[in-house]
Every structure is written in C-alpha cells, then in structure tokens.
Design a protein that fits this description.
heterodimer, A: about 120 residues, mainly alpha, 2 domains, two-stranded antiparallel sheet, 4 helices, 2 strands, B: about 325 residues, alpha+beta, Four Helix Bundle (Hemerythrin (Met), subunit A), five-stranded antiparallel beta sheet, 9 helices, about 55% helix
Chain lengths: ~120, ~325
C-alpha cells in the first residue's frame, strides 16, 4: 500500500533529476529541429508524413513515457492498473486518430477534385 | 503515529470489501480513471484538430509565423522560443511536484511545503504566459484582407516579408457612423466599424508598387503562394470585402477560421486545467501547512493532486507538438 507507514520509502530524488534532464534535452532537440528544419527531414516522407513530424511525434511519446512512468509513478504501480490505463488509452486514441485522419484526407480529396468552390 | 483501523471481520475475503485488487487506494485509482477519461477528451480535441489540418492540408496557417513573439523583443521574429520556455516552466513545476510527493513519502513537512509552493508559482507563471500568448493572438500583428469566400489575403513586400495594414493604408474620410441604440427605434445590432474599408486598402495598395498579395494556399515546399503585382491587384478588387485584425471565434487574420477556434479551445481547455490544478494545489498547500496530512499519517493527498498536475504537463507536451511543431 502506498501509505503503509511501516514501509520506509527511499528517496527517488536522483531519478527525478535524471528524468528532468532527459526531458529538457528532448525538448531542446525538438525546438532546435523546429527552428532549423533540416531539408532532408522535411523532404522525406514516410507513410505520407514528413520524417521531421515523425521525429516530433516519437520524441513526444518519449516525453509522455517519462512523465507517466517516472513522475506519475506508473512504474511502481501494479501491472493491472498500468495496463488498465495505458492499454485502454493507447488503443482508443490510435483508433480515433486513424479514423479522423483518414476521413480528413478523404474530405481534402473531395474538395480538391469535386466541383466545390471554397476559394472565391 | 497510530492509525485506527476498523476491524470488520471481512479481512482476506475476496468479496469482503477490504481488498485492493490493483494495490492502490480507492482515491488514487479513481484519480487514474478520471485522468484516463480526461485524456480521451483531449485526444478528441487533438484528433479533430488533425482532421481539420488534413482537410485543409494545402491552406493551413504556418504556426511559426503566428507564434513568433517573445517578451521585450518587439518586432523580432522569434518562432517557438516562447512556447519552449512555457514548456520548460511546466516541466519544471512537474519536477517540483514530484519532489513534493517524494518528500511526503519521507514525512518531511517542511520540504513538502516548499516544493508545493514552487509548483504553485510555476503554475501561475505558466498561466500568465498563456494569457500573454492569447493577448498576442487576439490582437494580431499585421492584419489581413477578408475575401468573399471567407479566406484571408495577407500583404507582403517584394522580399516576401509581411507588411502590416497600418504601414500603407490611410483611412479616407468617411460619412458613415456607427448605428447605435440611441438613434434608432428598432435597434438592430451592428458590428463595430472597421478601421479601414476595402477601398482604403485598395487605394493604399495601388500607391505602393512593391506590395504583393499572399494567399492562404501552400506550395509543395510548405510556403504560402505570393501573387504577382497584377494578379494581386485583380484579386484584391474582385475578392476583397473588408479587413480582419487579430482573431476571434468567427475569423482571424492568420487564415482558416478553424485555426483560431482550435487554438482557443485546445489551449483554453488546457489552461482551464492548469487553473484548477493551481487552485487544488493551493488548497492542498494550506492543508500541508496546518498539518492535516501530518496528523493523518501519510501524504497521499499530495500524491493524488500530483497525478493531476503531471497529467496537465503530459497534455501540454502533446499540445506543444501538434500545435506548434508539426
């Protein structure tokens, strides 16, 4: 139990600061890439998304992982709670994003090809 | 400290009520489930933002041009530095929060108090930054011309640098006055008169031969299309109906109206979470001060509000990526 007074908690301060440094570095890399925008990253596409955007998304998930695992202490919770939270959200979010982006792309195509004037 | 535990005779029985299948207290588990559902709400917002981006894939505003302000650097193009700073502030306040939780585990009241205070201050600074960001967004910088189709035309010079409407437009003398309640029997609401009419803009534009019109459309390299001088004048005369300065929920000078709507809703909803987070933190801070948790024997309440606070940080990480970076 989290508030079992008989159990002595050892301090996690060192881990907290390590995680803070990792997250700061990741943010700095993101900002640097966002300002510089290297051409080979913006010109290369992977699954119809710029490589640069893939890097941003992956780095964001890395940060989210550290926040959830270290700060929100998911790493110390029971497997059941961790899975109830992480699996549920991951599945539903991927599902939702997939549907909405597919639909958005379809609407874009319709507006481009169909006889719909949107700029007049 | 001695804790009183009520013995109900059901200990160890599966359906006795004393079990914690996920090995967390009731309050913490409910906080997790609330966070889960709140995360799905934010995903809904961000996914629909993605929908709009894909729908207007070749005409969406470029975030770097919109969010390029930095305090005390007036007129300097500083894309993203400010949001990066805001991100750091929020991450750091998350760190102080987790340090408070850590100190709570060791029952160090002084440290908990100090770190909670730092967290609250971080939250308030973040909220202030967001207010400043909103103020810049709402006021706008350059102004734009509204077209009949509900799009915007922006003005650039021959080098492609943005030109504000003020720099080349002078308002011609006008007869028309705002219709007000005092001089009308059947008062119909009238929107505020704009500073310039479209005719003022066209006059000013014609007088400055180095000006060009930039449309909302994006080229394949992700830059906005700049029209030739002739095409600019033709576009202005045929499509322009008025000017837009700044942003509201109906229209904004940056481009697509949905861009402004999503900005207000997503950062606003997140800012509202930060605000409630700060309030809850303040309540818990005073509870720590008067020794409520010292008497209770554990600082689990700090841990629970900590979860909420980290979640707010977690959401910001995604908002930062999808609104400002991608």
């Amino acid at each position: 139990m989290a508030h079992d007074t008989t159990h002595v908690h050892k301090s996690n301060t060192k881990r907290i600061w390590t995680v803070f440094i990792i997250m700061s570095v990741v943010t700095l890399v993101e900002v640097f890439l966002g300002i510089v925008k290297p051409e080979f990253l913006t010109d290369t596409y992977f699954i119809s998304l710029k490589l640069l955007n893939w890097i941003f998304i992956i780095l964001t998930i890395v940060k989210a992982y550290y926040i959830a695992w270290a700060f929100m202490h998911l790493e110390g919770e029971s497997k059941g709670l961790r899975r109830a939270v992480v699996w549920t959200s991951t599945f539903l979010i991927i599902y939702l994003v997939f549907i909405l982006l597919t639909e958005g792309d379809y609407v874009y195509e319709v507006m481009n090809r169909g006889n719909i004037a949107w700029d007049f | 400290m001695e804790t009183t535990v009520a013995r109900t005779g059901t200990e160890g029985r599966t359906w006795g009520g004393g079990n914690e299948p996920l090995k967390v207290s009731y309050g913490k588990m409910m906080m997790w489930f609330f966070i889960l559902s709140d995360a799905l709400t934010f995903s809904g917002f961000l996914a629909s933002y993605g929908f709009a981006r894909y729908k207007f894939a070749d005409s969406w505003p470029i975030a770097d041009e919109v969010f390029n302000h930095f305090p005390f650097l007036h007129g300097v193009d500083a894309p993203m530095y400010y949001v990066a700073l805001m991100t750091f502030i929020l991450i750091f306040s998350s760190v102080t929060m987790v340090l408070a939780v850590d100190a709570g585990h060791q029952m160090k009241k002084g440290k908990v108090t100090f770190y909670m205070l730092l967290t609250i201050i971080g939250g308030i600074i973040f909220l202030g930054s967001q207010a400043w960001e909103w103020k810049n967004f709402i006021t706008g910088t350059y102004g734009a011309i509204e077209t009949r189709g509900g799009n915007v035309l922006q003005v650039v010079d021959s080098d492609g640098h943005r030109v504000a409407l003020d720099e080349f437009v002078t308002a011609a003398p006008r007869e028309r006055v705002l219709h007000e309640r005092t001089n009308g029997l059947w008062f119909k609401d009238e929107p505020t008169l704009q500073r310039y009419t479209i005719d003022d803009v066209i006059t000013g534009f014609t007088a400055n031969p180095n000006l060009h019109i930039r449309t909302q459309e994006l080229t394949s390299t992700g830059e906005k299309v700049v029209l030739t001088r002739q095409a600019s004048l033709a576009k202005l005369e045929s499509d322009g109906i008025g000017i837009i300065e700044g942003a509201n929920l109906q229209k904004n000078e940056y481009g697509n109206p949905l861009f402004g709507d999503f900005f207000f809703f997503i950062t606003g909803f997140h800012g509202f979470h930060v605000l409630t987070g700060v309030f809850i933190n303040i309540i818990i801070f005073f509870n720590v001060l008067i020794g409520t948790y010292e008497r209770r024997g554990h600082y689990e309440m700090v841990e629970k509000v900590g979860l909420y606070w980290h979640f707010v940080d977690l959401v910001w990480v995604f908002v930062f990526t999808f609104f400002y970076l991608v």
